[in-house]
Amino acid sequence: MLQRETDVAIIGGGPAGLAAAVEARNHGCDVLIIERDDSLGGILQQCIHPGFGLHEFDDELAGPEYAQRYIDVVENGGIDVLTNTMVLEITPTKDLYAISENGVINIISKSIVLAMGCRERTRGAIKIPGYRPTGVYTAGLAQRFVNIEGFMPGTEFVILGSGDIGMIMARRLTWEGATVHGVVEIQPYPSGLIRNKVQCLDDYNIPLYLSHTVVRVHGKDRVTGITISKVDENWKMIPGTEKFINCDTLLLSVGLIPENEITKKAGAALSRTNGPVVNQFLSTTINGIFACGNVLQVHDLVDNVAVEAKKAGKLAALYSKGVQVPTSMEKQIVRVSPGNGVGYVIPNVINLDVKEEFIEKAGSMRFSLRVRKPMQDIYIKMRSGQKELYKKFHRYVRPSEMIIFKIKESIKDFLEGLDIDTPIEVYVEPKNKQPGKRERD
Ligand SMILES: Cc1cc2nc3c(=O)[nH]c(=O)nc-3n(C[C@H](O)[C@H](O)[C@H](O)COP(=O)(O)OP(=O)(O)OC[C@H]3O[C@@H](n4cnc5c(N)ncnc54)[C@H](O)[C@@H]3O)c2cc1C
């Protein structure tokens, strides 16, 4: 068996892996990126639309352009890369096994950064009745076909799910000469960014069917059409509202799930995002294993991926150099729970027993979350018992937009105000809340 040794091993060469690698290298570590694809860049290589890097580079780049900026730094910065190499397993003792055309490689690394991204939910995951004909694809796969492989998966499309990939593909397919008969969304609001609804659907007169779902796929060998139906607030189809749409292809854009097989095999605890549980240092429940990017939480903006990944890269580097970075399994931790209106919060736990000199090194304390439904005129609040730790007014919040906030006060003071028996709660409070009345999700 082949063997490699390094200080920081990074699994995944997408924007998270690249940013983490650059930061770990800047902290003086030997770094190895392991990527299963034949090139670096991750999902960005198929996102040829602009909209990347607005914050980080103050420039509106296409996905491959954004990725290339990092790839250049990686290639010129003495960072080792193994492409066409897939990590199969991290053992509970942190031994890493990967497979490439040269066989199995055992990689021994002082620390590991999980940056494997996420994958798309499939038809099986949402159980649409009907035959199993050719012509049902996930939207991301169709994006790869069109933008990288150079062929069209169909001519007459319907897209189920108004997530960003679905809406971006509606426009992309229209540009390629296809007809997109509509985007069908089970929620009463679009699930992707509003800018994508405007630029990808409204500008091309592509109908968006809100509170609708696909109830049947027709066709035995190839899709010949689909039936959609209106749904009630419990997502139950409303009889009599069915509508047949002639099409040869159904694209599914019905959610993304963190790639968590390796995380699970390593024995790391998972959170409600299906990514690993992490603390404020992006450390999993396993000593020396960190996580960032879509493997942790599905991000809407790549700039936020980069900020998170740099932190993971830095802390992995410090760990490799012998600094005791607390894991999320220590005794002195306090849980961070999503409260009213909040779907999840990262970090999942906060370590309280942090040495003072390390607080400075670790950098700012950031929280990220998504709300459960669109809301207006609300506060995002954080409390520990009766003590208010954070409060910010938002005119609008939507599940499609990740909310990020930083603790402004000194981290030392923030940590001193917490105790392990009182969980931290992050929640939504309407601006005009009536005393004693609790909002329902
Ligand atoms: C269609 C689409 C459109 C988007 N549009 C925008 C936009 O306009 N603006 C914006 O800012 N953001 C956008 N985003 C969001 C942003 O691009 C992503 O959040 C970001 O790419 C996530 O980076 P990542 O590195 O975590 O994951 P990925 O880019 O998915 O990278 C993960 C990498 O890990 C590799 N990998 C996985 N498992 C293994 C393994 N076992 N061994 C080795 N390698 C492995 C994968 O091959 C992949 O290269 C978009 C995302 C999508 C999907």
Query: What is the β-strand count?
Result: 27
Low-confidence stretches are: none
Average pLDDT works out at 92
Summarize the amount of helix as a percent range.
10-25%
CATH architecture of the largest domain: 3-Layer(bba) Sandwich
Give the overall silhouette. Answer: globular
Radius of gyration equals 23 Å
CATH fold field value of the largest domain: FAD/NAD(P)-binding domain
Structural class: alpha/beta
Enumerate the distinct ligands.
Answer: flavin-adenine dinucleotide
Q: So how many helices?
A: 10
Strand percentage lies at 25-35%
Major β-sheet annotation:
7 strands, mixed
Note the gap between the termini: 53 Å
Structurally, how many domains make up the residues? 3
Question: Please, could you describe this protein's structure?
Answer:
This protein is an alpha/beta fold and 441 residues long. The protein folds into 3 domains: 1-121 and 256-329, FAD/NAD(P)-binding domain, CATH 3.50.50; 122-254, 3-Layer(bba) Sandwich (FAD/NAD(P)-binding domain), CATH 3.50.50; 330-441, Immunoglobulin-like, CATH 2.60.40. Helix content is 22%, strand content 32%. It has 10 helices and 27 strands. Strands 1, 2, 5, 6, 7, 8 and 19 form a 7-stranded mixed β-sheet that branches. The protein has a 5-stranded parallel β-sheet with strand order 10-17-11-12-13. The chain has a 5-stranded mixed β-sheet with strand order 22-20-27-24-25, with no helix packed on it. Helix 4 packs across helix 5. The termini are far apart. Residues 11-17, 34-37, 42-44, 47, 51-52, 86-87, 115-117, 140, 143, 164-165, 168, 259, 262, 293-295, 299, 301-303, 305 line the site of flavin-adenine dinucleotide.
